[in-house]
Amino acid sequence: MKLYEVEEMLQQSGFIRFSKSVVGNINQIDRFELSFNGNLCVYFKSGSKEYVSRKYVHDLKSQIVEGGEYNDR
Amino acid sequence: MIVEGLKRIMIGVAVGSLITFAVISFMIIQSIDSSMQEIWKHWLASMLIGILFSFASAIFEREEWSILKQTVMHSTLTFLVLFPIIILAGWLPFNPVSLIIGLGIFLTTYSIMWVSMYFYYKNVEKSMNKCIDSDNK
Questions:
Q1: Which residue of B has its CA nearest to A63?
Q2: ipTM of the predicted structure?
């Protein structure tokens, strides 16, 4: 199974693409942090940490800022 | 790979030539005379610089590099290629004062670029954190 297939499958449950190799739940984000070298890190409530690649930042931001309800149910 | 390289060369040549055309047009309107040799030299330099930036922009497409690494790599490449071209073309006079001023402009440009990108993403971070905080309450 390809990651984009997983992404499509989980789209309805609030999952979104963070980078080439990461799909994560938008409702489980604790916070974002910009590191010194300009990488945008995302910390999940579970404690795990991933990077957001710039290719996906825009979509992620519009999803979080304008999305409101992220298909929580 | 070869196609991509050719595409970048063509874009560089096109942009460099367009700028040269604009400058020559301005010279014609202002009735400024120049020799064929002079125009050839500056046109060549414009095209080479066009090709340089056309290729260098690929650095910013490397998503796995941080912005810092991209900026450092881009500036190093530009420095190594751009300075010989502009010195040989006579755009930057080859004396200590000019070289220091040239280097100053160069570093300032990259610093502004780096700082603007940093603050852009800082803002993105802030606005996303704000939304997440208000959701968690």
A1: B128
A2: 0.79
